[in-house]
Design a protein that fits this description.
Low-confidence stretches: none
Number of strands: 5
Order of helices and strands: HEEEHEE
Bound molecules: adenosine monophosphate, zinc ion
Number of helices: 2
Structural class: alpha+beta
Strand content: 15-25%
Length: 115
């Protein structure tokens, strides 16, 4: 756990989140400022700052985040309609919390273009 990392504190329970999934590798909770009817953040329990610092040893873990996202899309009832998975990386992308996360966003028609 990294000191003063918001998402580490949600994973550890130090800060309350609306947790919708948890296992030994990952935790998912509802975004505090949702941009769509479903907006969930899927994070590794281990602190990793961003995609930029990923190591080859993290590949299974990152794949697991996508697998959890797919399961949650089903349980949220948005799998058939479709959804977006977004991982902002660095300042130009607007990353504000430097603990890697996948946004699962759905339940409405998405706007284009991205970017
Ligand atoms: P990003 O801008 O990609 O780094 O995404 C960070 C996300 O974390 C934003 O969508 C915020 O709304 C969300 N967020 C910030 N604080 C909390 C919190 N305490 N609980 C849940 N989500 C949060
Ligand atoms: Zn962290």
């Amino acid at each position: 756990m990294a000191d003063s990392c918001l998402f580490c504190m949600i994973v550890s329970g130090e800060i309350k989140g609306t947790i919708v999934f948890r296992d030994d590798q990952a935790t998912a909770f509802r975004d505090i400022n949702p941009v769509a009817p479903t907006h969930i953040l899927i994070v590794p329990n281990k602190h990793i700052e961003s995609v930029s610092v990923l190591e080859s040893a993290d590949e299974q873990l990152i794949g697991h985040l996508f697998s959890v996202a797919g399961q949650l899309a089903k349980s949220e009832g948005i799998a058939e309609g479709g959804y977006r998975l977004i991982t902002n990386t660095g300042p130009d992308a607007g990353q504000t919390v430097f603990h890697i996360h996948v946004h699962l966003i759905g339940g409405q028609m998405m706007r284009h273009p991205m970017g």
